[in-house]
Amino acid sequence: MTCQQLKKAEVHGHTIAYVDKGRGLPILFVHGFPLDHSMWRYQLEALGDQFRVLAPDLPGFGASSGLSTTVMRMEDFADVLAGLLDTLEVTEPVVYCGLSMGGYIAWQFWRRHGHRLRGLILCDTRAAADAPDVAEQRRVNAERVLREGPGFFVDMMLSRLFSAGFLSKSGPVLDEMRRTMMSTPPETIAAVLRGMAERADARQWLGEIRLPCLLVVGEDDILSPPSEMEAMATALPESKLVVIPEAGHLAPLENPEAVSAAIRDFLSQL
Prior knowledge:
Blueprint: E1 7-11, E2 14-21, E3 26-30, H1 41-47, E4 52-56, H2 74-87, E5 94-99, H3 101-113, E6 117-123, H4 132-148, H5 151-161, H6 164-169, H7 172-182, H8 186-197, E7 213-218, H9 226-235, E8 239-244, H10 251-254, H11 256-268
Parallel strand pairs: 3-4, 3-5, 5-6, 6-7, 7-8
Antiparallel strand pairs: 1-2, 2-4
Helix pairs in contact: 1-11, 2-3, 4-8, 5-7
């Protein structure tokens, strides 16, 4: 997926770059942190022949415009995504598919724009808020990124995002993800770290989410492990959990065929 294929729209004061291809039921793919829409490349290719696939770069990431705020909340991202749907005149309910931070945003999208949802796909994410020490470490990292640049943070993230097996291969996907993360402005990384640190605990809402939900998790995910996502699936009234073999936190990149198959199967039942 190249920048030449990206379109752009003005949404709530942001220039949002996005992919919009295919026809049919709209699927909104929301990337993790600190990545961009390209992390969904395999799913866009696999599903774009049957569905309308929408994949934006969130404000501050990828080819979208930068952030002018020091704290970017998950609620703010959710409102921008709803505004993008308005701009694109997407009136029918969408299936929202978010990974990690994209899942944090999903909870707020459901709370604020729930009428726009037909279903949720939650990949390698969490419902719990940060523990106090984790939230504080995010704030410390935010200040350090502003002082030193993103290098130390990217190295730390890569070691956690991918499984050990994938890291040992050191292939082109890993290299590209490193470049994507390194190109994210320090101001964006800092603002979003602060926003994630103050996010609400979504576990209180899970029993109220009466939508079809697919939960996808890499079997080797250390950031949102299968046991935690299994507990989420149990709390959601209409959910299915799929554990992806040979994958860590970025399961859609590490084992794309299995993730795309799980998504396609879920969509076929809506």
